[in-house]
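User: Could you check the structure of this?
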Amino acid sequence: MIINHNLNAMNAHRQLGVNTISAGKSMEKLSSGLRINRAGDDAAGLAISEKMRGQIRGLEQASRNAQDGISMIQTAEGALNETHSILQRMRELAVQSSSDTNVSTDRNAIQDEMNQLTKEIDRIATTTEFNTQKLLNGSFSNKDFQIGANENQKLTLSINKMDTASLGLTSTITINSGSVTGNKLADGTYRVSGTSVYDASNNSVGTISGKVVKADGTAVMSLTTDNFENGSLITISENGTKFSVKGTIDGTADDMAPGNYETKGSNVLKDGNIVGTVSGNVLLIDKADGSKLAVSGGNLGISATAVTSGMSFTINGVDASTRDTAMGSITAINTAIETVSKERAKLGAYQNRLEHTIANLGTSSENLTAAESRVRDVDMAKEMMQFSKNNILAQAAQAMLAQANQQPQGVLQLLR
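Assistant: Sure, the predicted structure tokens are below.
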């Protein structure tokens, strides 16, 4: 027997320390609910878990981004819903003014409401915003929504300009000086087919590559092949002093011929003479250099007074002041309604897509969370079993340490 070194006590003490540490780790896991509380618990598992956590948080933020995108789209679509309501009212007014049961006073009152409704459409287009960003004034273009957890997982949205000019209800041009010449056409209605113009007797009277002029030679209109479609109608009346165009025509606003232009009712006056009315989709007048001026955008009617060289005036696509212009306005408003409908349909499609995106992001986040849980979370039942074992072993080691400490006392019996 030896007394300088109590090996049994040393062994019991070491086992007590091991069991106490193991029980402490089990207590930490049970209290946190995590299997990995530090890198030492599982270095590889910790690295995998942290990558998953980053992905999960990215998916959750992407879902919030998509929800913000839906809120923004709903803001724009709600404004366009009101624009739709205004256009429907304007169409109703145009139909009302198209009836000759109305007199000029009635039509003037109708036109007053038309003007206010037109201004309201422009106000909606210029003031609708989300988080200080204008939505309907044409500046919201190629905007990205980050709808994924990784780089370039985005959705790009553009919202078209939704003011009256973009809807074909108004347009502005500037007048400059110049001179024109052209070919005369007699009174009557002319039909466009291909590049040819036919009169009421179906006789070819020329091609669409010239100018419509008054009987005195004053040019009032330019016709080009590029600007007319088959089936367009050109009406010349009152000895060449009055014309109208019906059809879908494209063109670009530019300079007008020289002279003073003003309006009176539905008529366009040049130097005091009636030079035309507009009930088609474009007004074409020769520029100073001989090329064509084409003002497009709905069924157009000039709205200006005493316009001289260098000044600007507005082309109004809705005019209820006469029966003819009111009837033409119906087509213009129909086109505007269709344009707004297309934009709302586009926004609705984006909203539906974002709703599916949110659902998919939620599913992905849920699955990743489950995977991360399997890596990092502790099995409480299993860990409780480990804790109970380590706790019992620690108590046993403590008891054995007490017994081992009593063993050297036996040496005293030998010394008596």
